[in-house]
Amino acid sequence: MYYEDELLLVEEVRRNDDSEALAQLVEKYHPMIDNLASEYFITSFDRDDWYQEAFITCFDACKIFDGSTGSKFGSFFKMKFKHHVIDLIRYENATKRKVNGMTESLDEVDQSTMVSPSQKNMIEFVEQVRKAAGKMNHSELVALRFTFGNLNLDEACKQAKCSDKSLRSAASKCKKKIQKANEKDLS
Questions:
Q1: Degrees to nearest 5, angle at CA 20 with 19 and 21
Q2: Binning pLDDT at 50, 70 and 90, where does residue 153 land?
Q3: Dihedrals φ, ψ of 115, to 5°?
Q4: How far apart are CA 24 and CA 7, in angstroms?
């Protein structure tokens, strides 16, 4: 009976593109999908991506499945999904190989063009901030996060447990400490 219900769902998807029947089939095979997800790794795929690919593959499997030979839909879907996953991995690896073919030896590259002046200034600025941050108290560090836009004024005041006037004063102290770190680097 259970197998017959599955065949009815497959038939509904095949004839009517029934999304509810498709969802029931994919739901039934969640353990198989989860097993393949734990067995294979695809960069930047999360569980939702795996289920999305399973929906696509299940739909395709329903369209071409022929149960008249005695084969079971579950086995057919698993094989088709596994092959689809392997194809995705092959595609991902082919893309990596293509990128690897475009690489150059570092010895052959003009290294003066690798870092632009603005990148170099940014790297130096980040290093100055890092040095100065080591000498800042808690409220100054919160003020620094506020200055860089990581916190809004209300959140920063709550974290620093101070008024907005005090927070702005702490931000001013941060600026002076960063400038002092810059002056030490120049001397």
A1: 90
A2: confident
A3: -125, 120
A4: 12
Do the beta carbons of residue 53 and residue 99 sit within 8 Å? no
* CA distances from residue 174 to 79, 131, 154, 180, 181 in whole angstroms, order as listed: 61, 11, 19, 10, 11
- Gap between the Cα atoms of 125 and 146, Å rounded: 17
Overall average pLDDT of the 118-135 stretch: 75
What's this model's pTM, rounded to 2 decimal places?
0.51
Name the percent of the chain in helix, strand, coil, to the closest 5.
Answer: 80, 0, 20
For residue 30, which of 2, 51, 49, 10 has the smallest C-alpha distance? 51
Model confidence pLDDT, tens digit, residues 128-150: 778 877 788 888 888 888 888 88
CB 157 within 8 A of CB 185: no
| Residue type at position 87 | D
Other CB atoms within 10 A of residue 61 CB: 23
Give CA–CA dist 11/14, Å, rounded: 5
Contact in structure between 153 and 145 (CB atoms under 8 Å): no
